[in-house]
Every structure is written in structure tokens, then in C-alpha cells.
Design brief:
There is one protein chain. This protein folds into 2 domains: 325 residues, Outer membrane efflux proteins (OEP), CATH 1.20.1600; 60 residues, no CATH class. A 4-stranded antiparallel sheet has the order 1-2-3-4, with no helix packed on it. The chain starts with a helix and ends with a helix. The protein is α+β, with helices and mostly antiparallel strands and 425 residues long. It has 11 helices and 4 strands, in the order ααααββαααααββαα. It is 70% helix and 10% strand.
């Protein structure tokens, strides 16, 4: 009977444990887990990226408008008092006129609109790269938090073990009661640190939901750690790629091209627009019988042009267009200098974090683990005090967290560099 009760209790415990785990796993079936899932979700749902895409579409639709001729003008005239002519009274008059810009004006206008559309496309690409960089930054931070919580739990278990060791030595009178108290103090400190890390999950998830435009209130599952990407970045190659591939700089290049086309367009305004049309007059029968061409409707071929005589205004428009060219050129140079400076700083942080990652991972953590093991053995043997053992444990925890922080910083800086360069490194 007792065995049956124990078996039932075990089954219930397993079901409850599985249910609790499944609830976290399946709270939101569409929740991303891997970095690629986050990037795909953001590309589909981020509102800011959709704004940039619609701006690109708006600019593209401006090109066919720039190509088109102005609408032809239709004129209808009704003679309130009919005008009597030799061939008969004129009663109605119809005219249609099509204006044609001066040679090259449509081409200059179209080229300006096309360059502006290309610039908007590059700004969309820049917005996408920036979004992906933000997603990667938040994802790596979430991954770091998951690992930091694991490390804190492992150290908590280690301190609990040290407390048991100290308590055993206290019972056997091999050590004093203060060692047990010190262990309990360190245990409370680590529990508080663990609680702080666990509470940090909410704001990080909120940040991820913001860039993903994710409306769900469900907590995101812990991310699946991305494979560490090793990259060797040459400063010269980075700056070369940046100047050639950065979408912000490419957008400014197209904006400069559009500004130059608008200068050509402004120059065309010094020349007249030409119009060609045809007119038809409705004529009734002549009053005099036997009149030749009686009631014949006259057809008129018409020609018109505007007279660009107010040249001061056209000259001002040309000077304005040239000033815009200079402005676009200065903007490009300033943006290039700013982006190169940002890339230089990111490259420094990338290389510094990679150096720290290797230092902690290859040297300090293995040495700290060795020191902690030796310290525990020495404490059990009574050759060192409990403070030395705790100090060794604290160093290991510190270096483990520093290693994870340096690894996270390295991947975040790599993402920023790729955003600035506009290509994978």
C-alpha cells in the first residue's frame, strides 16, 4: 500500500513538473528562440522598418510621375451671340492643347526622381541593418542574462556546499561558529544577486518585444545561445568596405546625384515650354443661298509657348539648386567622418572585448578553478581560513561573469561593425 502511494505521488510530481515546463515552452508557440528567428520576426513586424519600406514605395511611385507630360488642356467655347461669317454663323468652339517641356527637362526631372528613389531604398536598407543590430544587441544581452543566472545558481550551490563543510567542521570542533555565519552571509548575498538577475529578465524581454513589435504579454522563452562568431577585422579593410557598402553613405551619394539633376532641371527653366494643339469651330449654314463652303467648320492648328522673361527668379532657382549640391556634398563628407569615427570606436571595443574573453576563458577561469579546488582541500585540512576559501569562490564567480560579459560585448560590437560596414565581416 505504501509503495502504491509513493508511486502515485511520484507520478503526480512528474506530471506537475512537466506541465510547469511545458507552460513556459508553449506559452507562445510563435515566440522566437534562436537569433535567426528573432531577425525574421523583426523583419516582418517591426513598425519602424515598415515605415522605411513605405517611404521607399512612395519615392518609387514618384518616378513615373516625373516622366509623364502635363495633362492636355481642353477648351470649350459657346457663342452667346452667334458670329455671322461668310460661310455661316459660328456657334461652338472646341480646342485641345498639349504642352511639351523644353528638350531634356523631362529627362532631368526623371533622373532626379530615380536618384531620390534609390536614396530612399538605401535608407530602407540602413534601417534594416540598424534594426538587426538592435535585435542582435538585445538577443545577446538576453543570452548573457541566461548564462549569468546559470553561473549564479552554480555558485549558490557551491556556497551551500561550503556551508555544509563549515558546519561539519564546527560540529567536530575543527572550526569556529564564525565560519558558518560567513558562509550564510555569502549565501544571502548570492541569493540577492540571483534575485536581481532574475528580475532583470522582464525589462530585457520588454526591450526585445519593442524591437520585434510583439504585442504578446507572454514571457519570451530563454534564447538558444548562438554559435560564437570569430572574426578578424582589419582596420584598412573595414574602412574600405564602409566607404563602399555603408547604405547611409550610398543614400547620400544618390541624394547628391539627385541634387545635380535638379541643377540641370533648373537650367531648363530658362527655355520655354512649347504647346501644340488643334481647334474646331462649329459653323452653321450661310444665310445667303448658294454660298460656297456654306456651313464648313474651320479646323485650326495652334502653337503656343510661354515666355521665360522673369529670369531673376529662374536664376535664383538655379543658385538654390547649386547650393543644395554643395549641401549634399558636405553632408556626405560629415556623415563619412562620423561613421568612420563610430567604426573606429566599435573596432577598439571589439578587439578589447576579444582580448578580455581570451584572458578570462583561457587563463583566469582555469586558474581560479584550480585555486578554488586547492583552497577547499586546504580548508578541510585546516591550513587556510574560511575567508580565503570564500575569496577564491568570489574570484571564480567574478571571472566567470566577466568572461560572459566580454563574450557578449564582443558579439554586440561585431553586430555594430557589420551595421556600419553594411556587410558581414
Amino acid at each position: 500500500m505504501k509503495r502504491q502511494i509513493v508511486f502515485i505521488v511520484m507520478v503526480i510530481a512528474l506530471v506537475l513538473a512537466y506541465g510547469a515546463g511545458a507552460s513556459e515552452r508553449s506559452g507562445d508557440a510563435n515566440a522566437p528562440v534562436e537569433l535567426e528567428d528573432y531577425l525574421a520576426f523583426a523583419a516582418m513586424h517591426n513598425a519602424g522598418l515598415q515605415v522605411a519600406f513605405e517611404q521607399w514605395k512612395i519615392a518609387v511611385e514618384q518616378v513615373p510621375q516625373a516622366k509623364s507630360l502635363p495633362d492636355p488642356k481642353f477648351t470649350y467655347g459657346y457663342f452667346i451671340e452667334e458670329v455671322e461669317t461668310r460661310v455661316g454663323p459660328q456657334r461652338n468652339k472646341l480646342e485641345i492643347m498639349q504642352m511639351f517641356p523644353w528638350f531634356g527637362e523631362i529627362e532631368a526631372r526623371t533622373d532626379a526622381a530615380a536618384a531620390a528613389a534609390k536614396a530612399t531604398r538605401k535608407r530602407y536598407e540602413a534601417a534594416k541593418l540598424k534594426l538587426f543590430s538592435e535585435v542582435k544587441d538585445a538577443f545577446y544581452e538576453y543570452t548573457y542574462l541566461a548564462r549569468a543566472i546559470e553561473i549564479a545558481k552554480e555558485n549558490l550551490e557551491l556556497i551551500q556546499h561550503f556551508e555544509e563543510v563549515a558546519r561539519t567542521k564546527y560540529i567536530t570542533a575543527a572550526t569556529g561558529h564564525p565560519d558558518v555565519i560567513r558562509a550564510q552571509i555569502e549565501l544571502a548575498r548570492l541569493e540577492d544577486r540571483l534575485k536581481t538577475l532574475e528580475e532583470l529578465r522582464k525589462p530585457i524581454v520588454a526591450r526585445l518585444n519593442a524591437v520585434l513589435n510583439r504585442q504578446s504579454l507572454e514571457m519570451l522563452p530563454w534564447p538558444r545561445k548562438a554559435e560564437f562568431r570569430v572574426a578578424e577585422v582589419s582596420r584598412e579593410k573595414m574602412i574600405e568596405l564602409l566607404r563602399a557598402r555603408n547604405p547611409e553613405l550610398e543614400a547620400l551619394d544618390f541624394e547628391l546625384e539627385a541634387a545635380k539633376n535638379r541643377v540641370d532641371l533648373a537650367k531648363k527653366k530658362f527655355w520655354p515650354d512649347v504647346g501644340v494643339g488643334v481647334g474646331w469651330t462649329d459653323t452653321g449654314s450661310a444665310l445667303s443661298p448658294g454660298m460656297s463652303d456654306s456651313g464648313k467648320d474651320p479646323i485650326i492648328l495652334m502653337f503656343t509657348m510661354n515666355l521665360p522673361i522673369w529670369r531673376e527668379g529662374y536664376k535664383a532657382a538655379e543658385l538654390q539648386a547649386k547650393a543644395n549640391v554643395r549641401k549634399a556634398s558636405h553632408q556626405k563628407k560629415q556623415a563619412e567622418n562620423t561613421i568612420i569615427a563610430l567604426a573606429e570606436r566599435s573596432l577598439y571595443d571589439f578587439e578589447d572585448s576579444d582580448r578580455k574573453r581570451k584572458l578570462y576563458g583561457d587563463v583566469l577561469i582555469p586558474k581560479s578553478e584550480e585555486l578554488l579546488e586547492a583552497s577547499e582541500t586546504a580548508y578541510k585540512a585546516g591550513t587556510i581560513d574560511f575567508l580565503s576559501l570564500i575569496n577564491a569562490q568570489q574570484k571564480l564567480l567574478e571571472f566567470q561573469l566577466y568572461y560572459e560579459r566580454a563574450t557578449t560585448d564582443n558579439q554586440q560590437e561585431l553586430a555594430r561593425l557589420e551595421m556600419l560596414v553594411g556587410a558581414e565581416l
